[in-house]
């Protein structure tokens, strides 16, 4: 009886003192680890997060992985997801794509959108498992039907290209629109180009520019490149070499692979002063970390 009373008092003491930012952090962590060792899943998750983020303890990815794995082995879906992602990236453990696929698949059985989307990508690109486009499509679709915007984009892409499913532009547009309406920048950018060209939708320069500008505002490299093309060709806006060079330069700096060639092409018809103006605007965008660059 005396031991039980002491344990109850000790738990209350360390938790209360921890909330006040007192000196009992070590005791508190020790108490949590004892509780986690007894099989308490919530505490295992908490410790995994603490060691991952350095909350009250030094960051330790190995200990983080260990505690997430304990909870994952008991069927906890959030823990299974974290274990899968750490295995996929080699964080706190050796990189193991095949093991990551197994854990994503376990989490996906519960219908978890994130897990389903990751399983879809691994099937589509042969990461940790063999390529199986039909399984990829089915996995994406399950997540897309639960309003996961990334999965909606992948479903749209596969319908558009006929990957793992028959080509169906009409349904592809529906899924692109759903994904874009939820803020997915890949969907916004691609759908924007469709509206500019009238691919699968009535041609609408206004709608196309609206979508591409929205994606560019969030720092999307391909959207920057498309804005360069818009100004180079004068699509719905006056043709402007400075703005064309600007957006090609921003796209290049943000990682777009072919934008540099377009930037160099735009420079051929520009004066040195115009190029310097465009470069100054591009640098201003870079200082904003490529976000909210539409208005300087």
Structural write-up:
It is built from 16 helices and no strands. The N terminus is likely disordered. α3 runs antiparallel to α4, α9 packs antiparallel against α10 and α13 packs antiparallel against α14. 71% of the residues lie in helices and 0% in strands. The chain is globular, with a radius of gyration of 25 Å. The chain has 296 residues and is mainly α. Among the domains are: 76 residues, Tetratricopeptide repeat domain (Serine Threonine Protein Phosphatase 5, Tetratricopeptide repeat, Alpha Horseshoe), CATH 1.25.40.10; 80 residues, no CATH class.
End-to-end C-alpha gap: 71 Å
**How is the biggest beta sheet arranged?**
none
Molecular shape:
globular
Mean pLDDT level: 90
Structural class: mainly alpha
Count the helices. How many?
16
* Oligomerization: single chain
Our Rg estimate from Cα atoms comes to: 25 Å
* Helical content (DSSP H or I, runs of 4+): over 70%
Q: What's the number of extended β-strand segments?
A: 0
Percent strand:
under 5%
- The H/E string reads HHHHHHHHHHHHHHHH
User: Which runs of at least 5 residues are low in confidence (pLDDT < 50)?
Assistant: 1-23
